[in-house]
Specification:
The chain has 257 residues and is α/β, with parallel strands linked by helices. Helix content is 47%, strand content 13%.
C-alpha cells in the first residue's frame, strides 16, 4: 500500500513535544521528510533523532519572530529546495502576567487582571506565528501545497484562558481568509480545532478544570495526540484535495456544529 506522503517535504512547528511530535512521527511513517521546528532546538533535535528514515532536519527559533522565521525557512529552502506541507502547531496556553492563577484564586476576572503584554504575546505566538510561517512556507510551495493550522475548541466556544481563546479564534478566521487567496495558487489551507487532548500541555492543567469538560464529552475521555496527528495527515494529504478554508474539530462530541 502506497504511503500517503511519500516524497513530500513537511515543516511542523512545535515538533519537539505533544501534538507536534506526534504529527512528525505519523508524517514520517507515511513517507514525508520532516523539517521539525521548535522554540527549543534541542527538543526538535530529539524528535528528529526518533524519526525513521533519512533526510529529516531540526530547526530552532521563535515563530513570533520575523527574523527567526526568515532564517528557518531560508534553511529549509537550502536543505530541500521546496516545501510541500506546512503545519502551524507551535503555541502555548499560559504566559506570565496573564492573571489566570489570580482569577482561579477568586481575585477578579482574567480581563481585569491580565497584563497587556501577556495578551499581545499570546496573539503574536498563535496568530502572528501562523501568519509568518504561512507567508514564508507558501513562497516555497507550488500547486498541490497544503497548510494545516492548529486552532482549538477554545477558539470555537470561548472556553479556557481568554487570550488563548481569542488567539485560537483568530487562527480560524485567518484560515478562511487565506484560503480565498491561496486557492488561486493551488495551495490548500485548513485548520484543526481539538477538544481536550492528552498532551504535556493539558497535563499541566488542574484536573479539576478538565474533569467537567471530559464529563460533558459524549465519548467520555480525552483525545490522544495520535488521533490529532491522523486528522492532520488527512488534511495534509491528497485525500482532502478538494478541501480548503475549512476546520475540523476532533473533540469527542463535546461541541457539535
Amino acid at each position: 500500500m502506497a504511503r500517503r506522503l511519500e516524497g513530500k517535504i513537511a515543516c511542523i512547528t512545535g515538533a519537539g513535544s505533544g501534538l507536534g511530535q506526534a504529527m512528525a512521527f505519523r508524517f514520517a511513517e507515511e513517507g514525508a521528510v520532516v523539517a521539525a521546528q521548535d522554540l527549543r532546538r534541542e527538543a526538535a533535535d530529539e524528535t528528529v533523532h526518533l524519526l525513521d528514515g533519512a533526510g529529516h532536519c531540526a530547526f530552532g527559533g521563535d515563530v513570533s519572530d520575523e527574523d527567526d522565521m526568515g532564517m528557518v525557512f531560508g534553511e529549509i529552502y537550502a536543505a530541500y529546495g521546496h516545501l510541500d506541507i506546512q503545519v502551524n502547531n507551535a503555541g502555548v496556553d499560559r504566559l506570565p502576567g496573564d492573571g489566570f492563577d489570580e482569577m482561579m484564586a477568586g481575585e477578579g476576572s482574567q480581563i481585569s487582571l491580565m497584563d497587556h503584554a501577556a495578551f499581545t504575546k499570546m496573539l503574536a505566538i498563535h496568530v502572528g506565528g501562523t501568519f509568518l510561517c504561512t507567508r514564508e512556507a507558501v513562497k516555497l510551495m507550488g500547486e498541490g501545497g497544503a497548510v494545516v493550522n492548529l486552532s482549538s475548541i477554545a477558539g470555537l466556544a470561548g472556553w479556557g484562558p481568554i487570550h488563548y481563546a481569542a488567539a485560537k479564534g483568530a487562527v480560524l478566521a485567518f484560515t478562511r481568509a487565506a484560503a480565498r487567496e491561496l486557492g488561486a495558487m493551488g495551495i490548500r489551507i485548513n485548520a484543526i480545532a481539538p477538544g481536550v487532548i492528552d498532551t504535556p500541555m493539558t497535563a499541566r492543567v488542574d484536573e479539576a478544570l478538565l474533569a467537567p469538560m471530559v464529563g460533558m464529552t459524549p465519548l467520555r475521555r480525552k483525545g490522544t495526540a495520535e488521533e490529532i496527528a491522523a486528522t492532520a495527515l488527512h488534511l495534509a494529504s491528497d485525500e482532502s484535495s478538494f478541501t480548503t478554508g475549512q476546520w475540523i474539530s476532533p473533540n469527542g462530541g463535546l461541541i457539535t456544529i
